[in-house]
Specification:
The protein has about 280 residues and is α/β, with parallel strands linked by helices. Helices cover about 55% and strands about 10% of the residues. It has eleven helices and nine strands. α4 packs parallel to α5 and α7 crosses α10.
Length: about 280
């Protein structure tokens, strides 16, 4: 198995494959000598390289686990170097453009677009850990071109590392995750931006308590990864931002008008919805 990008997600998958004895060789591809050293030191892979062609030469499976724009950029190169019959999958957080690029690069349908719904705000090989995918969902977003056999085999792989699996269209996936993941990250980044603007000379943030810290945990996520997700999922994200701006406007209007009833109504509904979140997700 060749894993391109041995950060949090790629490194964790590599570790699980090794520990479960699912792959004889797990080759990690990384551009950084320091990350290759770390991956070796932590036993994430059996070998590492920065040579994509060499890494793919004997692969039965290639997993792209780099930022979403890099996945789209690398797919043609993977198609050029992967041997016939090598299955290819990815873990990117946006699916529409990746599925289109994967179908174009692999017209025989052996590219299976997927997204494990697991992770954290930490990144790089140092953050990789075993069991990251246990009791988390892995979503396949196949197209009409995707080979049924390839999809079944990739689905079996994610089940073997503890994930539950489901499938949905790439368009629906991107819409859903704009709402439940990309918008919250955008709001966390915007909130930190606003707090820094208000900060003025270190007089305010030193008084912050759990609220600001809890709310902005995800603003600690990797900036490159999130830049790429926002740019790749532009239309659904902009729609979500519009809904968020309208919600802010409603609260602002209620505060301006001294309309406590309107505020209480929104807060009570939000509190209920927040409680439901735990039961439904
Ligand atoms: P990560 O820990 O930052 O690892 C990504 C690795 O990709 C980096 O270690 C880097 O390795 C490599 N990379 C970065 N830019 C690249 C480029 N332009 N070309 C080639 N390689 C590049 O990120 P991650 O959290 O594992 O995320 C990887 C993928 O999983 C992303 O597509 C993300 O959308 C998706 N995902 C993330 C999460 C999450 O919660 N983090 C959850 C689900 C899915 P080198 O510098 O060593 O080459």
């Amino acid at each position: 198995v060749t894993i391109i990008g041995i950060g949090l997600i790629g490194g964790s998958l590599a570790l699980d494959l090794r520990q479960a004895g699912l792959a004889e060789r797990v080759v990690g591809v990384s551009r950084s000598a320091e990350n290759r050293r770390l991956a070796t030191e932590r036993g994430l892979t059996t070998e590492t390289t920065n040579d994509l062609a060499a890494a793919l030469r004997a692969a039965d499976l290639a997993v792209l686990a780099v930022p979403v724009t890099a996945i789209v950029g690398l797919l043609p190169q993977v198609a050029q170097h992967a041997p016939d019959g090598c299955l290819v999958t990815d873990v990117g957080s946006v699916k529409g453009p990746i599925l289109a690029a994967g179908d174009a690069a692999f017209p025989d349908g052996r590219f299976v677009a997927g997204h494990p719904i697991a992770g954290s705000e930490h990144s790089g090989p140092a953050a990789a850990r075993t069991g990251l995918f246990v009791q988390h969902t892995w979503i396949a977003t196949p197209s009409a071109r995707t080979s049924v056999d390839a999809e079944e085999r990739i689905t079996a792989l994610w089940r073997a590392v503890g994930a539950t699996t489901l499938r949905m269209s790439a368009a629906w996936h991107d819409d859903v995750f704009a709402t439940v993941s990309h918008l919250p990250h955008l709001v966390a980044y915007a909130l930190m931006d606003a707090v820094m603007t208000l900060e003025q000379g270190g007089e305010r943030v030193k008084f912050s308590a759990g609220g600001l810290r809890d709310f902005t945990r995800i603003a600690g996520s990797d900036p490159v990864m999130w830049r790429d997700i926002f740019l790749m999922n532009r239309a659904p994200l902009l729609q979500a931002v519009e809904a968020y701006r309208a919600a802010l406007d409603r609260l602002e209007a209620a505060i301006r008008a001294g309309d406590g009833e309107a505020l209480s109504r929104v807060f009570a509904q939000a509190r209920l919805a927040r409680k439901e979140l735990g039961h439904r997700s």
